[in-house]
Amino acid sequence: MIKILLDTASDMPLELRERYGIKWVPFGISFDDEFYYDQIDITSEEFYAKIAEKGIIPKTSQVTREQFAEAIREMLVNEDDQVLVITLASSLSGTYNEAVKAMEEFEPGKVKVIDSRQVTLLITDLVIEAAEMIEKGADLEEIINVVEAKSNKREAFFMLDTLEYLRKGGRISFAQSVIGGILNIKALLIYKDGKILPYGKAKGKKQAIKEMVEYVRKNRNKDNRLILVHAANKELVMEIAAIIEKELGEKVEMISEIGAVIGAHVGPGTVAVSC
Fold first, then answer.
1. How far apart, in whole angstroms, are the C-alpha atoms of residue 93 and residue 179?
2. Residue-wise DSSP of 209-263
3. CB 156 within 8 A of CB 190
4. Which of 84, 123, 139, 201 lies 20 to 30 Å (CA to CA) from residue 167?
């Protein structure tokens, strides 16, 4: 039986993990000298509340080889069991490399590792594809080929309140972060091919929403699920979902909160769409 193992950067909702029997291993989250395991010691809601309480930008630490190896051992119960590990984009974290190291501890063919090249619910989208293929009886190589091909066809449009979190995480320069620091200016970014790329800026929420809806209009791929995610900004994400449905006639298929791993880099208030 093929089983799937993730890291918590996937933000896969509990109901979907239970539906498909998915296991995951946690990133570490640090607020100065306070350390937590993501989704074990701290929930997403508690994470954003702690940011508001402490006023500091938290740090994340990658999943280790030992964490992956321990989880894989627990999953390889029967002789015919195999484990497919799908990780956060290798361009953003060393977690993929740690998973590869763990794979090497096991008999060849028992464990395979995929670099999702994606973030948050875009990873979940790939996992659903893989899980549905497992249910239909596909073999491991077939699943890997389909998932890797699909991962190359997705990008996301991000609207951020500030670029300070990305700057502190070393993802962008100080000069770039100044753009998002101007009062009432929303920074607009594209995540594509494992890279964070500038898209533009919007003055205020209304213009930012307009830009996001227009992005969906121009880039909608009917083969992809229409996905919205948010960082402690459910009211805004539901407003955007309603506008997309009204103006474009498109139903948003998945809405979820960005967890601590990606949230630590984009910051509270962020909303993103992938279509």
1. 25
2. HHHHHHHHHHH--TTSPPEEEESS-HHHHHHHHHHHHHHH-----EEEE--HHHH
3. yes
4. 123
pLDDT one-digit tens code per residue, 204-243: 999 999 999 999 999 999 999 999 999 999 999 999 999 9
Quick one: 69 exposed, middle or buried, by C-beta within 10 A (0-12, 13-18, 19+)? Answer: buried
100 backbone dihedrals φ, ψ, rounded to 5°: -65, -40
* Topology annotation, domain 155-274: Hypothetical Protein Tm841; Chain: A;domain 3 (3.30.1180)
DSSP state of 113: E
Annotation: CATH topology of 2-27+62-151: Rossmann fold (3.40.50)
Residue ranges matching CATH 3.40.50.10170 in the chain: 2-27+62-151
Angle between helix axes 140-151 and 120-135 (nearest 10 degrees) is 150
Question: Is residue 104 within 8 Å of residue 132, measured between CB atoms?
Answer: no
Q: Which whole-number Å values give the CA distances from 158 to 6, 48, 77, 119, 145, in the listed order?
A: 23, 18, 41, 12, 28
226: left (phi over 0), alpha (psi -120 to 50) or beta: beta
Count of C-beta atoms within a 10 Å radius of residue 65: 18
> Which residues fall within 8 angstroms of residue 213, CB to CB, at 6 or more apart?
240, 243, 244, 247, 248
3-state secondary structure (DSSP) of residue 52: helix
Return d(Cα 81, Cα 206) in angstroms, integer: 51
Contact 73, 7 (CB under 8 A): no
